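Aim 2 progress update. The chain analyzed this quarter is reproduced below.
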Amino acid sequence: MPQSSPTFVEEALDAARGTWALVFGRQDAASYFDFSQRGLIGSFIALLLAVAVSVFGPQLLGAGSPTGAAAGVTLLSALIFAVQIGAAYLVLQMMGRLDGFMPYLVADNWANFYVSLFGLLLSVLLGASDIMLLVMGVLAIVIEVNIARRIVTLAPVQVAIFIVAQLAANFIGLMILGGFILQTMGPAA
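Predicted structure tokens:
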């Protein structure tokens, strides 16, 4: 009897378990994600929802934002994501590990979704602060390291190279693209 495909909600619940497993570096983390093309599409839907939560969540909760800020943040998020994915692809290609690219995308997209939800929840409960940003940054790095270890199955030196490339790509992308977007948006009103 053929097994039916999971619904998006079932996939999301499994991915939540997988993201939780990644936080703790559990070896079974990969078993919770769907690495098929269908799973990749579901993870991109989750990524779009993560961007929406990050951009519009604070506004829905009453935080004000300047006119056009949502468009600028959305564009910056998309461009930074493209730079990060490009860096991941290049590094994995150089390592001869392109087999890990699609699993990386799936796990990373779902992790971004849940980290965005968690960040929004923390900001509602505790308010936005530098400490919260630090906690979220550390959490994101832990998850990225464990995606490289448990999902892509890179060796320790490869994990370090992969993470440094990701951080460098994000930093450079944020500096260059963020500056360009802020410049084109003009001074805040």
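The helical segments are 8-23, 37-60, 69-94, 101-126, 130-151, 156-185. DSSP finds six helices and no strands in the chain. These observations will guide the mutagenesis experiments scheduled for the next reporting period.
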